[in-house]
């Protein structure tokens, strides 16, 4: 009950105390993502084909043809996003968290100390991200062979698609909630690899309900856009314009940077409140 | 040295990669342009069940954009992958141009359709599939232009150029095997039935040429089945029987060909019928209907059995079989009009004229693109002449004219439009309405130029004009026969007539 009250307080504070300097590392992740989407929009040029073709081509030959490339763009973007988050995000997210935590521990938000904490957190954040990714892949597979079939046997057509997507998203959020505290712990002074990973997972499990709540509170605007892209990509491509997929994905990407910032900001506050409570 | 080689190799790889990227990007742009054309077509067609010619020509212009925007070799670069991308682009551009060709054809601009189809054939190169589609489009355009001989020559050329592909399953058949039947059908549509025999012989020779190349069992079965049917249509029952025997041996040897059983039984029954062994033929036909009711040969068996029943003087048995063809869940569009027409004839013979008349009146609207649809209105006229009811015959002739005019309006580019106009002319002549008859002759001269029956219409027109005292018009028609139909059966006598009467009367 206390966790839920703290979560509500963290959400409120994170929203109220938005600071550009803390958000900036999350926005840097956006740069390659938007460049990728721009290249995907311009596959009719050699530089567009060079920029996005290698990812879309990895989804099969249709990824390099019009308008199928836009049908597969959501999957291609997810692959690219996964790569960016793994290798770039493993540094930038801890950097953002370090800046969020700086006022709490009364240190400067920028400077070598903050960067040093983020650099130390790189390894464990990358490992946690890869673990999270593997669990999500397994869940994707299980979803298709199990729940998706059961849901579609009860609800046909679009209703079944929406329900399957909601179940998929909810479980993906639940997995992410468990891993949320690994980078938050990793940027703390004196953090170790094992302590950050084990302690982070344990904290994620302990505060599961509160963490899931704050994630859902901040994520819904991005989810609305994502739902359209992921549930009915053919509708967007055939009824409107294929290029609209790239525009929607760009909107979702921008929204996601804010969502990530607010989630980690609220998560850091929840973690800090928890530590103060224990003390 | 090693570093320089590595650098050179890296530069080459980069250049090769760049040319492929350029090619892939070009292909992507071509695909996007075609998609835009499809989208534009959808917009232009909204709210128009049958778009007018202007709209169709706008659609054509959209699909012609890739042809105007992309020119071989499309991009720089060499290698197998670059060549593959080039083939893809050619195919995309070619298919778009063929869509433009179809739009032009629908817009009654067969000349533009033919130009597009021939352009695609010129760029198709080693892409046999695209070349085949281009040739088929050429045939369609030539048909619409009434250049039947050229259409048939193109179809024959296709048979020489594109050997049939070996099917993977007995059900899969290369459409090229339909071409010989297509030639025969086209000749039938042009009402030049005298040459159908030659076309059948050509088809049989083509099938035998394929069989001489030791084809795979599936292809062999398809070709032998077609050959036996063609031989039967040629009236060579013994040769057809020999082919059926060979096919039966092949089916016994190849378990995957068991589905050919109904066709084998059907061919055997037809041969029995030709040999006047009606009892055995009927037993075999009934066996097909009973054992293979969903096979397309069941409908054919019913039709042939009904014809045999007619020959045996059993109208009840014949009518029951014709009715069974029409009552099938999806009546065969080729057989249903024949069954309707023949059922009406049998009902007339047994004195049930009212029912026969109702059936005959319904045939042109139910089956507009059929020989039965063309003949049914005249069958009503003939009944009244036969039963000495001249007033009813005249009324039926007037109704026949209305029916044919409606049919022409519904599909102005149909190959049957020529025959509808010819029958309209016959009806006007029978009604003694010379003015309308001559108008119809003029319509045929304009719309059906090149069709053999048009030469006959012009001859009829010359006679009507002469009988009406208009020798100038008569001579114009006759000179048209000499100039435009030099190989028609009437040409020699007309030429002689014009030579004898030269200078005796004014002429164009």
Briefly note the structural class of the backbone of chain B. mainly alpha
Shape of chain B: globular
Amino- and carboxy-terminal Cα gap of chain A:
19 Å
- Please give the number of β-strands of chain B: 0
Summarize this, please?
Chain A is mainly α and 279 residues long.
Give the helix/strand layout.
The complex is a heterodimer of chains A (279) and B (508).
Chain A: H1 2-16, H2 20-41, H3 46-57, H4 68-71, H5 73-87, H6 89-101, H7 112-145, H8 147-154, H9 157-179, H10 181-186, H11 193-206, H12 208-231, H13 233-239, H14 244-278
Chain B: H1 2-45, H2 53-69, H3 80-106, H4 110-123, H5 128-144, H6 148-161, H7 179-189, H8 196-212, H9 217-233, H10 237-253, H11 261-274, H12 278-291, H13 296-311, H14 315-326, H15 336-349, H16 353-366, H17 371-386, H18 390-410, H19 416-431, H20 434-447, H21 452-467, H22 471-484, H23 491-500
Structure, described:
- The complex is a heterodimer of chains A (279) and B (508).
- Chain A has one domain.
- Helices cover 83% and strands 0% of the residues of chain A.
- Chain A contains 14 helices and no strands.
- The model of chain A has no long low-confidence stretch (mean pLDDT 89).
- Chain B has 508 residues and is mostly helical.
- Among the domains of chain B are: 19-145; 146-275, Alpha Horseshoe (Serine Threonine Protein Phosphatase 5, Tetratricopeptide repeat); 433-508.
- Chain B contains 23 helices and no strands.
- In chain B, helix 6 (148-161) packs antiparallel against helix 7 (179-189), helix 11 runs antiparallel to helix 12 and helix 19 (416-431) runs parallel beside helix 21.
- Chain B is globular.
- The mean pLDDT of chain B is 88.
- The chains are: A mainly alpha (279), B mainly alpha (508).
- Chain A binds chain B through residues 43-46, 48-50, 53, 64-67, 69, 242, and chain B through 18, 21-22, 24-29, 31-32, 35.
